[in-house]
Design brief:
The structure holds two protein chains of two kinds.
Chain A (H helix, E strand, L loop, with lengths): L4 H5 L9 H9 L8 H27 L14 H12 L1 H12 L9 H22 L25 H32 L6 H10 L7 H34 L11 H27 L8 H32 L2 H12 L3 H16 L4 H4 L2 H28 L14 H24 L5 H11 L12
Chain B lengths: L8 E8 L2 H14 L4 E4 L5 H7 L4 H29 L16 H23 L23 E6 L7 H10 L4 E6 L1
Antiparallel strand pairs in B: 1-3, 1-4, 2-3
Helix pairs in contact in B: 1-2, 3-4
The chains are: A mainly alpha, B alpha+beta.
Chain lengths: 461, 181
């Protein structure tokens, strides 16, 4: 079998791997003795999670007045954070669904943890609209259910579409992730080095998976169809989030570029988060032979592409503001570039437009820790983008008499950093109790690219 | 091992060291005319499924039907709410404003198809089923790691424990064992 030259020098998986060793290398980090690094990370994450707890309880006692929101800036940090988290939650399903349908082999070692990242990011995102309601216990008002008020949700409103889009996205991502996880849960059940209780638990969740060939046939069909369904779903979710803004009349929101530009931004920030998590993970868990430079290179190339689309989005918004000849649009744009929030706008431009341009250089795409730093800058830039869109647009609307500055309070920051704690806590638990790489898929890759079964043993009976 | 008799037997299993060996054995099994055969592999092997004649037919149909049902539910709900149950006259705009209902229709299509389809796939595989006779096959815990198993089941019309055992031993198996039901 002749392999292309690029494959030989730049493998998606180390060619020395066998079915057994690839399994052991991935599964080694599942339930090891607690390491100091993990414990240290978990302590910080858990402390932040407790901060979230505190902030939410304080919110329940006093209401949304503890935040910096005012009129006209009614959508404060809550919506900024919602859009930021849901954007991050796009890369996982993008990797799993799109790259699967396109048969991109390099997807295999990053899809599992990227999907987990998606789920946790969607969980963080989902919190914010609920918290933003102020009276969380009435959130079910937005669902269509038979009620004594004889009312329906407004099905023509993007905000109601959002409820359907985000909850469907969360559910389908969970189903997709769990179906992908089944063979690996069965693998953990069958490992003698796991304790009895753990094996029983993994066995329960593996639903009795035994790798029968007739099961695999149906499994693969179902997985393919799930990928096919999840792919347009990824596009729909952030499009709907974009429409939340675009259908508003606020200058800076009312623009048809929003849905595609939001989707590109979401994938951009999602891949940045994938890199932020992958770089420390591959060195901590010794996964450098599995998450190779080729994978980081792939992520960086996708960030470059989506980064360029995002840059076009900024250009287009600015151009449209000028071309519209609307004094409100132009006034808003002038304020965005040179008004009260100007430093944030310029930092945003540096992070989201200049930083990804460095990914033209192969050397940068292939130096993990440089990429790590740049990906954090992009995460920051994308958060600032949402801040500018939500807050700067709102604070400078039509009537100068209603213009107001939004200044976040301690509780705004506490809730935001709290969700970072929630995200990291869930992610660290995931790293400890589930394989971060899809083991069965890696074995399949090893059959094509690696040493297969390795040395064959003599018959033993 | 004492023979519990063919009626108490689930089948005879064979263990192989590599995917290539299993594939060769599967070809021999099908040439020999066995029909109730299942392979157990640590990753999907399409060649094996093709030779053994496994079909994925009903899975896609369930996805399709549930997707259509979901779409109808989504659209029907919006239509019923805005046209029949609670029509609102907003500046004379039509009640049946269907383009605004497409996002919800789409979301429910995907939701119904994905959730029901995934459950249906498991049910068609007879899962969840926490125990299965094959788990008693020697060394079977490696079927989710690096070993490849083949089982000719007792319900096969050509099944005869001693013949099947001799036959499987000739196919290059590491070990052959009878599996009790």
């Amino acid at each position: 079998m002749s392999t292309p030259l690029l494959e030989q020098v730049d493998p998606v998986v180390d060619a020395r791997y066998t079915y057994g060793s690839v399994t052991d290398d991935i599964v080694r980090h599942v339930r090891p003795p607690v390491s100091m690094t993990w414990l240290f990370g978990f302590a910080i994450a858990f402390a932040l999670l407790m901060l979230l707890n505190y902030a939410v309880i304080w919110l329940l006692i006093w209401g949304v007045g503890i935040w910096g929101i005012n009129i006209p800036v009614g959508w404060g940090f809550a919506i900024v954070n919602f859009v930021w988290w849901i954007g991050i939650g796009h890369a996982g399903t993008f990797i799993s669904a799109f790259l699967y349908l396109l048969r991109q082999e390099w997807r295999t070692s990053i899809n599992r943890f990227a999907e987990a990242m998606t789920l946790f990011a969607v969980a963080c995102a989902g919190l914010f609209p609920l918290l933003h309601l102020g009276r969380i216990w009435l959130f079910y008002f937005i669902l269509p259910y038979p009620n004594t008020m004889d009312l329906w949700p407004q099905f023509r409103s993007p905000l109601v579409w959002d409820v359907f889009a985000v909850s469907t996205y969360g559910t389908v991502s969970l189903v997709f992730w769990y179906v992908g996880l089944l063979p690996d849960l069965a693998g953990l059940r069958d490992r003698p080095d796991q304790g009895i209780a753990a094996r029983k638990l993994y066995g329960f969740f593996s639903l009795g998976w035994r790798g029968a060939s007739s099961h695999w046939t149906r499994y693969q069909k179902a997985y393919l169809l799930l990928a096919g369904l999840a792919a347009p779903l990824v596009i729909s979710v952030h499009s709907v989030v974009g429409m939340d803004f675009a259908s508003g009349v606020v200058p800076g929101w009312h623009s048809t570029i929003f849905p595609p530009y939001f989707v590109a931004g979401a994938i951009f920030s999602g891949f940045a988060m994938v890199v932020t998590l992958a770089v420390p993970m591959r060195s901590l868990f010794h996964l450098k032979g599995l998450i190779t430079l080729r994978h980081l290179d792939g992520c960086a190339q996708l960030m470059l592409v989506t980064g360029c689309i995002v840059a076009y989005g900024y250009y287009c918004e600015t151009f449209t503001a000028w071309y519209s000849a609307s004094p409100y649009e132009m006034g808003m744009m002038w304020d965005r570039w040179f008004g009260r929030y100007w430093p944030l706008w310029w930092i945003l431009l540096i992070c989201n437009v200049l930083v990804p341009q460095t990914f033209w250089f192969r050397k940068i795409r292939r130096s993990p820790w440089t990429l790590f730093v740049l990906s954090i800058l992009i995460n920051l830039g994308m958060w600032l983008e949402r801040f500018i869109i939500v807050i700067q647009s709102l604070h400078h609307d039509y009537l100068p008499s209603s213009w107001q500055i939004f200044l976040p309070t301690f509780w705004d920051y506490a809730t935001f950093f709290g969700t970072i704690g929630l995200f990291l806590t869930l992610f660290l638990l995931f790293c400890r109790y589930l394989p971060v790489i899809a083991v069965a898929e890696m074995r399949e890759l090893v059959m094509h690219k690696g040493s297969g079964a390795g040395e064959e043993e003599e018959p033993h009976d | 091992m004492t023979d519990p008799g063919p009626d108490k037997l689930f089948g005879v299993s064979a263990e192989y060291a590599s995917a290539e060996r299993l594939l060769a054995a599967v070809h021999e099994v099908s040439r020999e005319g066995y029909t109730k055969v299942e392979a157990y592999t640590p990753f999907p092997m399409e060649d094996v499924s093709t030779v053994l004649g496994h079909s994925d037919k009903p899975v896609a149909l369930v996805f399709l039907i549930c997707g259509i049902l979901g779409g109808l539910t989504g659209f029907g709900m919006c239509w019923y709410a805005n046209v029949v149950n609670y029509p609102l006259d907003i500046g004379g705009r039509p009640h049946n404003s269907w383009p605004a209902w497409i996002p919800i229709t789409f979301e429910l299509t995907v939701l119904f198809a994905a959730v029901t389809g995934a459950i249906a796939m498991l049910v068609m595989c007879g899962l969840p089923r926490l125990h299965h006779p094959m788990f008693d096959a020697p060394n079977f815990e490696r079927a989710t790691r690096d070993r490849f198993f083949l089982c000719i089941e007792a319900r096969d019309p050509k099944f005869n424990p001693s013949d099947v055992t001799t036959f499987l031993k000739r196919t290059g198996a590491l070990s052959v064992a009878e599996v009790n039901a």
